[in-house]
Write a structure and sequence with these properties.
By secondary structure, the chain is an all-beta fold. It is 2% helix and 48% strand. It is globular.
Length: 752
């Protein structure tokens, strides 16, 4: 057994170093029929895939009576590896068969001759045929290890892969790893590291091709000069340009330079996932409320990610109860792991608009519904749709919560309304909790907290997607979503830091999309022109593009670039495009973030910061809370805000330095009316200055506002704290947190 362990160790080291061990028979030359094993599995998990034994038949005659047997491994006292074959150790037999010249493959699914799964351990194969060459050994033997350890990787020994790098192009190249599994939970990608060995005045391209020389993905397409010595790393994640996972097999990366030989290497894609849906399908709909009666209606887009290969196909349908309203898509061929979308226009199959109500979209495989969500259809013709917005902004923070956790819904009411209601509904559209109900509500900004519970806080919400909905008389409902997870940790949070620069000229430069993540996640960035996807940008890698421990929980800035080209490599026309940042990990999908990026060679718009206001103004820190210093930005910028006394010009406090803001109106920075020593300032008039720049520590525009600070007028009576309680209690700190709630009758400093 010791000699066998040495044999396996040497084989695995050889594979890790890129050297593949061909196994050949000991047949003599000039024979009637010779068999050699060209490729075979060395380690596999039967729950994920089958083992293969590939062999080649050569010679003028057919190989007769070919038998392949699998045996329980029996250690041998011989110093050389041998496969002992007592009949009681026989697991299964394939054959006998007769084969002509050619290459053949036999598969073993890890079952014995009775169809039962064998136990993990070492097994040996014995391949024999009836007409071997004279004086030649009539069999070939080798080892196969069966494992159920999820950390163990599938491995092969053989000569199926061509030479790792072929050709003599002006590059030195390494690939690690050369075998990838894009459908793995964390995903993985082949990192192609290369150095340019000579100047390339016309640039170069790097593309992924399949065995038929069809382009699968374009990684680099650069037509500008490249200097000798330039080093670069790019990655391929086993997907087409459109983001769909490629089928398993061998793919080739090709470096091309005009007038020079191409440099070619190979990357193998594995996909061990089989069977019916093995994990949850992640899905959401945007928007969740549609009005198909509008002149230019916006359709509902159902976006979903398949986490494991669905071999029984997939159908997506819109239902009203148990009745199918419209079939959006249907296929009975396997659906690979990846991200997809389906669109519903709020109509039946015959084109007629459906009645206004809530409908269910369902995912069906093998006749069973295994995931679903809701879409509300609402329309009104009298009176016509309101000109002024009903809800101008809204968001839930966090939008992905653990069972029992709370989410704060912030929203801005753009006009005075009647019969206002904010409710939380389940996937069938049923109201589970009413957070706010008022016969009249004035315009303004508000927040409401959903406790993640129903029945007035008694029942914890089940895992799933819930819709929070704003309604008012003669207004089209507005909705958002909150996802409740069962994991011990909520999903990641994306902070979009915007593209820089924008606009940009693709003939001279590119742009970068900057964002932050609170957790390691797989990230996809999609560029759209209207509703049409024109470019997929996958941030290569999984654990290197997000939050990392030891960074004080501030996240990691990420800067994927875009050269202004579509998936086909063509420069897009000048104009404004939408980008969407999506992220997902084991805790579920993050709330996607989107924005706009402008492509064009026009003169950039100058930065403008304006409209400084204070809300409220005057402000009394003794009786009021939540002072906000507001301003507008026409471009994304870094902002610094300082406060001084108007009468003396004396410096009071810097509120923020180089804080990044996206372009917008009513942007704000809070001020507690304290100085740099955190002491409350005296009454008087104060100026606040807003400095903005396109880069940190750069001032390209400035605006100044003023406000009045009043003091005194504290509410009479003693400070009183009431309504004290903790929720939930008891609680498990490994799964969730508890919240302390209380009421005070006047502003006060509180210590818990």
């Amino acid at each position: 057994m010791a000699s066998f362990k040495r044999f396996v160790a040497m084989g695995l080291v050889a594979m890790l170093l890129g050297g593949l061990m061909p196994l050949t028979s000991l047949a003599a030359v000039d024979t009637t029929s010779t068999i050699s094993v060209t490729r075979r599995t060395s380690v596999f998990d039967p729950s994920k895939r089958a083992a293969i034994i590939e062999y080649n038949v050569q010679g003028p005659d057919s190989a007769n009576d070919i038998l392949l047997r699998i045996y329980n491994f029996v250690p041998s006292a011989s110093p050389n590896f041998t496969c002992e074959t007592p009949s009681e150790k026989l697991a299964i037999t394939f054959g006998p068969v007769t084969r002509t010249q050619g290459t053949y493959t036999e598969n073993w699914n890890g079952a014995d001759k009775n169809g039962n799964r064998v136990a993990p351990g070492d097994y040996c194969f014995d391949l024999r045929w009836g007409n071997p060459p004279a004086n030649a050994r009539p069999y070939i033997q080798g080892m196969i290890t069966v494992t159920n350890n999820p950390a163990t990787q599938y491995a092969e020994i053989g000569a199926a892969l061509p030479a790792p790098i072929a050709g003599a192009g002006p590059f030195t190249v390494t690939v690690d790893p050369s075998v990838i599994i894009p459908t793995a939970t964390a995903g993985n990608a082949a990192r192609i590291s290369y150095t340019v060995t000579e100047a390339l005045p016309n640039g170069y391209s790097l593309k992924i091709e399949d065995s038929g020389s069809h382009v699968v993905a374009t990684l680099v397409d650069q037509n500008i000069p490249v200097a000798a010595g330039v080093q670069s790393i790019t990655s391929w994640n086993g997907r087409y340009n459109n983001g769909t996972v490629v089928p398993p097999g061998d793919y080739y990366f090709r470096f091309h330079v005009n007038g020079k030989s191409d440099l070619i290497g190979v990357i193998r894609v594995e996909n061990p996932n089989t069977g019916a849906p093995g994990g949850p399908i992640i899905h959401y709909v945007d928007p969740a409320i549609i009005n198909p009666t509008l002149q230019n209606p916006i359709n509902a887009t159902i976006r979903y990610t398949v986490n494991s290969r669905i071999t029984t196909g997939l159908s997506i349908a819109i239902r009203d109860g148990n009745n199918t309203v419209k079939l959006l898509s249907a296929t009975n061929i396997p659906v690979e792991v990846g991200s997809y979308s389906a669109v519903w226009d709020g109509r039946y199959n015959n084109g007629v608009i459906v009645p206004a109500k809530t409908y269910t979209y369902v995912f069906i495989s093998n006749g069973q519904v295994f995931a679903q969500g809701s879409i509300a259809v609402s329309y009104s013709t009298t009176p016509p749709p309101p000109v002024s917005p009903f809800i101008t902004t809204h968001n839930a923070n966090p939008a992905f919560i653990v069972q029992g956790q709370s989410s704060v819904i912030s929203y801005t009411l753009g006009k005075n309304v009647t019969n206002f209601r904010l409710s939380v509904r389940n996937q069938s559209g049923t109201i589970n909790e009413t957070l706010m109900s008022s016969p009249s509500q004035v315009a303004g900004s508000y927040t409401q907290t959903w406790s993640g519970r129903f029945q007035n806080g008694v029942a914890v919400a089940d895992p799933g997607t819930y819709v929070y909905m704003f309604e008012a008389t003669n207004e089209i409902p507005v909705a958002g979503s909150i996802v409740v997870n069962t994991q011990g940790q909520a999903a990641a949070i994306i902070t979009d830091l915007g593209p820089t620069p924008s606009p940009f000229d693709p003939l001279t430069a590119g742009t970068v999309f900057r964002y932050q993540l609170t957790q390691d996640s797989r990230v996809d960035i999609t560029i759209l022109s209207g509703l049409t996807t024109v470019k997929h940008l996958l941030v290569a890698g999984f654990s290197n593009n997000g939050f990392s421990a030891g960074t004080n929980n501030t996240g990691v800035n990420n800067v994927p670039s875009w050269d202004g080209r579509n998936d086909g490599g063509t420069i897009l026309a000048n104009g404004t495009y939408t980008y969407v940042i999506a992220a997902t990990n084991a805790n579920g999908p993050a709330q996607p973030k989107s924005g706009s990026v402008t492509l064009g060679s026009t003169v950039p718009t100058p930065l403008d910061v304006n409209t400084p206001t204070a809300d409220p103004n005057p402000f009394n820190p003794d009786t009021q809370l939540n002072l906000q210093l507001k301003f507008n930005l026409n471009l994304n910028a870094y902002v610094t805000v300082t406060v001084t006394r108007q009468d003396t010009g004396a410096f009071v406090k810097t509120l923020t330095t180089n804080q990044f803001f996206n372009a917008g109106t009513n942007l704000s920075v809070p001020w507690s009316a304290t100085d740099m020593n955190n002491s409350t300032v005296p009454a008087g008039v104060y100026n606040f200055r807003v400095d903005a720049g396109l880069n940190p520590n750069q001032i390209q525009d400035t605006t100044t506002g003023s406000l009045t600070i009043n003091r005194g007028g504290v509410q009479s009576g003693a400070l009183d704290i009431t309504n004290i309680y903790a929720d939930p209690t008891p609680f498990n700190p490994e799964l969730r947190r508890t919240y302390f709630t209380f009421t005070i009758n006047k502003p006060a400093q509180i210590t818990v």
